[in-house]
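Re: duplicated header lines in exported structure tokens

Our pipeline writes sequence and tokens for each protein into one text file. With two proteins the header for the second block appears twice in some exports. Here is an export where it did not happen, for reference. First protein block:
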Amino acid sequence: MKSPRYTILVASRKTGAVRRLTFSRRVAACVGLFALSLPVLTALGWRGAGEAEVESLKVANETLRLENESYREATGELTAQITSLQTALAQLGEQGTLDAATRAAMANLPAVVKSRAAGGLGAAVAPTPRRSAPAPESTFGILRDLLGSIESRLSSVRSQIESQQALARATPSVWPVSGWLSSTWGTRRDPFTGLPDFHAALDIATERGKPVRATADATVESVGYLGNYGNQVMLNHGFGIATRYGHLSGFNVRVGQKVRRGEVLGYVGATGRATSPHLHYEILINGQPTNPLRLLIGR
């Protein structure tokens, strides 16, 4: 038995033409079923899209959470580094302060001595490398690079200041004993022969037994009797600087001992080639005698 068929008539109002659409019951059932299921399919489609969007939002939220944790960690690191830099700057400010008298004495040192203290530090600071493509990943990366560069420069400046401080401690800038100058640096009449003679030191006359003090930080290089100097102490201050203290009546140090400026080395006497109690005070730079008055800044 044939399936029933249905006809739909469609008439045009303008022309009056009539069109017939004929279809079977099966086709009508399919069309009806599609019409009924369309809202359901649409709802399911929206639900699937909503779930995908929710999942996307979850992923984005997790990414933001991780980025925030990274930012907090980076911010903590940067804060610690900035605090460290501030502390370093304060320390450098304190360390870099020299009194005017010491600076004046150091200024009178030969250039070769000052260059030893500098030690070529100008070349120690390498330029900050520039990042090639790709660009830095974040602002925090740029800040880390900048702070690293500043720390490198601070380290170099700290090294320079420490060297200058070491040179200041090694500069023989104070009087070894109080008294009066019985003989200065330069040409003089020899007290024994009466002939012209070059005196490469200062003679400081004072009472016998008066303490003789180191004029700068040093290591004791020699202690003992040495010809015309009599009982003498030789100090090595580093940077090519040495001082000698002659005609002593006794010693208060030993070879190899570390001494600080102002420590007692021995006592005034008249040993060796001397006519009366006094201290023979001599400064040598790279083995060459230097006028002590160029460096002495006070009693």
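Second protein block, exported in the same file:
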Amino acid sequence: MPELPRLAVFGNQTMLPIFDLVEAASGLCRIVWVVGWNEDAPSRILSRFGEVADVTGLDDSAVIEKLRGFQLNGIVVFSDAAMMLASVVAEGLGLRFHSQRTATILSDKLLQRQALANANIPGPAFAGVNLNNIASAKIPYPAVLKPRSGTGGRDTFLVRSIEDVSDALHRCAPSEEFILEEWLPDKSNADQLFSDVVSVETVVREGHIEHITVTGRFLFAPPFRETGSFMPSNLDQVEWDAALGLASAAIRAMDIGHGFIHTEVKMTPRGPRIIEVNGRLGGGIDDLIQRLGGPSLNIWSMKLALGQDIGPIPALAKSPVAFIRIIVAPQLAKALESVDGVSALNALPGIDDVRLNAQPGSAFDSRTSSWVQNVLRINGMVASHAELDQLVNEQIASTLQLTWYYPSGDDA
């Protein structure tokens, strides 16, 4: 029986869907977990589910040579932070992946904006900023300040003045580089049940762009923390097609020729605008697709990386609606005092799984990504967007009871 191909997996171990990937790899490939490229301590559990390549302290050339010894057949990435190193390794070993130029653009939000502008794709005014050049950034306010490299809403701020920018930067790592962007207005001023932000899920094969679907988002928690996604989006057909067209243009602007792409788009009064392009499968997207009866995109990611055929893109119906709802702390809360109603959530129609991720006493910081720090995650599926609205904004909201510790000592 021929030996299975070896696939290098790069990912932040705190967010890596280890067991999902092990299941996806069964009978398909042998996983080589690449660890030590970031601050994560190598996890002992990984050695139970594949080979482990610890690259702690190695420069790029040494990483390439170490991984050469594993006789890899492909590379897949589940973390933006690993994008550049993976591209270097891929080029050194002759494997399929984003080129180093494309990986650089995908890893840096400022370079992304420049690439989009060079391709005449409309977007907000923007500038790179740090503690030393705040005054030189001539961006209209309000604006959004965020790290040039970061995910999940980490250290993302709504700022209304130069003073706000200075205050925000002084709260962050002094060496980190940021991008300041003109705020993209909401599509309308009316009360909204869902966010104007969507994501386009795409697979690119040998330069050929194929869109899978458009994913909707729940309203963000202040300042810009994600609170979950649902699939498919509630966009009408005209907006849906416009989002797909914009995603295609952005993919071409960044010269992406291979892999899964997760493009975040905001629908504005002047049409769709790119928020950012991610050169990997989006968080939670595999789960949503499979709930709707689609294929495992984790398996597809592995097959694509190994140069294997994934077959035709399935046509997904506009209903039912699968969802992931994330409950996060209020912006000013510092710790969770109590949580009640979790068992009752499991009894609500449409909810399949509730994962409690915090206990009374757990500390919270609104600067942290909501995918890393949240109270609980709720997965499920309903028949329509109207049912989703009722479930999330009425039933869950009235069933779940949380109290918080605030610096003032007042509970809410």
